[in-house]
Design goal:
203 residues; alpha/beta
């Protein structure tokens, strides 16, 4: 989605056809078309962090769908408050500030369509980045924390490479090599593949 080419994800239960939109950065008509095409009912919007490419369309989509926003961690409040200014700097129209209906903290649980996601606070790319982890499905939504073959950039305000690598190694990788994940950009991978091959995670 958008000129930033970020991943916006739809997740849902096949049984209930109830789900969530993850990181709606923009291109809302495409998101709504995908929702209609799958025949699902969206019950909430989830944000992994507050950067414009992941949250720029969240306020407008909340109004359109009439659903709450959950996430990220409150440490990203300043990013969400400044979305209009950030959008203007990048030449993106329509970005609105957003306050989630629920801030998420480490150890919280988010439910989507009957599936539970544990919340891990994983700062470094942004101070309030979170990972959504389904232990039952062995599946995670990691935002811009880790990618296939790379990790999130840390040269933006509030970023810390040391903090990010520590969060990945100490919090995310121990979830298990079998865990598949969708990152905020690029293709999917597994934590096991990244532990073995990601050049940023080798000692």
């Amino acid at each position: 989605m958008t000129p930033f080419q970020q991943n916006c994800t739809l997740i849902w239960s096949d049984e209930t056809k109830v789900g969530a939109v993850v990181d709606p950065g923009g291109d809302l008509e495409r998101i709504e078309a995908a929702i209609a095409g799958q025949g699902i009912t969206i019950e909430k919007i989830l944000l992994t962090h507050g950067h414009i490419d992941h949250a720029g369309g969240a306020a407008e989509l909340r109004d359109r769908l009439g659903v709450p926003i959950e996430g990220p961690h409150e440490a990203d409040r300043y990013l969400l408050d400044s979305l209009p200014e950030t959008g203007a700097n990048y030449g993106l129209d329509g970005a609105r500030a957003v306050t989630p209906d629920r801030w998420l903290a480490d150890g919280d649980v988010v439910e989507v369509g009957g599936l539970a996601f544990d919340i891990l606070h994983a700062p470094g790319h942004s101070p309030g980045s979170v990972v959504f982890m389904s232990r039952d499905a062995r599946f995670a939504l990691v935002g811009d924390v880790v990618f296939k073959g790379s990790v999130g950039r840390t040269d933006l305000p509030g970023g810390s490479h040391e903090q990010l690598i520590r969060a990945i190694k100490d919090r995310v990788l121990p979830l298990g090599d079998d865990v598949a994940f969708i990152p905020g950009h690029g293709p999917t991978s597994t934590l096991g593949e990244e532990r073995l091959t990601n050049p940023f995670l080798q000692d």
